[in-house]
Amino acid sequence: MTEQVVYRMAVLPGDGIGVEVIAEAEKALRVVGQQFGHRFVIEHGLVGGAAMDVTGEPLPDETLALCRASDAVLFGAVGAPKYDDPQARVRPEQALLGLRKGLGLFANLRPVWVHPALVDASPLRPELVRSVNLVVVRELTGGIYFGEPRLEGSERAVDTMVYTRAEVERIAHLAFRIAQGRRHKVTSVDKANILACSRLWRQTVQAVARDYPDVTLEHLLVDAATMHLLKRPRDFDVILTGNMFGDILSDETSVLAGSMGMLPSASLGEGRLGLYEPIHGSAPDIAGQGIANPLAAILSVAMLLRYSLAMETEARAVEDAVVCVLDAGHRTADLASPGQPQVTTQQMGDLVVQALNAE
Length: 359
What we know:
Elements: E1 6-14, H1 17-36, E2 39-44, H2 49-55, H3 61-68, E3 72-77, H4 94-103, E4 107-113, H5 126-129, E5 133-139, E6 150-152, E7 156-158, H6 165-180, E8 185-190, H7 196-209, E9 216-221, H8 222-231, E10 238-241, H9 243-252, H10 254-257, E11 264-268, E12 274-278, H11 295-307, H12 312-327, H13 345-358
Parallel strand pairs: 1-2, 1-3, 3-12, 5-10, 8-9, 8-10
Antiparallel strand pairs: 4-5, 4-11, 6-7, 11-12
Helix pairs in contact: 1-11, 1-13, 6-7, 11-12, 12-13
């Protein structure tokens, strides 16, 4: 008899609604294991404010070691009001930067698709968002977020932005490969009319594009891209951009889907190990109320299955279960129209599990 493969999953709920939505995502992951005969061993770790409460650090060594020893990481959210001092030396949000660096994760994928039943949830006109299907490919380890910030007294502050050709090449190759499996178009977003880093970015992406003659490349300045994402979002397929621009643009795309609660993400490196998380934050204003939307966290499980475990059938099963639940008209508070019945975080998770079990 063939010995069953054991997959180790590091689960880091974090803070606020991260705890609530990851509980539902974990339920979906366990059901996938039962349905498809996989053995997922789930181990929990402290991160963010929850870790600071216990250890004083947002990313304890034990948590990073757990992640390195795992096949994939499922992450909730970090950020707590009592640690919300931007001047503080240590903050919960530093955990994410530490994980990206410690695990060698250089690419963040944020797919955006608009479910037909949710076109009215977006503040944009239905004809603009209907059939939107794009993915933002954001570079994670370079740029201004990994520069050398410094305060010069109380009147001047300096942040530095650095990119190397090698950093741009590896993220560009990934974006073009993703485009080959989609609609064969890459839109590279930069600020090449102003920034030296962006000029290097554009030159490098242009050179990489020669290896992918079947993919169309266009360049957009970031200010134009923000406008076109709202005016003609269906024209985009793969958006390739740097760390800060990708952070901003991918949050903007949540408007297309109607809610941040609908958007999953994957942070990937050279190997199969990846970190998967909903794009939203810890939302302390609604934490503990049972109204957070867990679908982004559950869809992050689908990305985990697809990219870290190469389980495409299982990933599609999770996505189909989410579609089934939405088709049936179930909505959490962020998606519900005025007067429309709402389900709780746990109820939405249970509905997805029921749909999975029915497949």
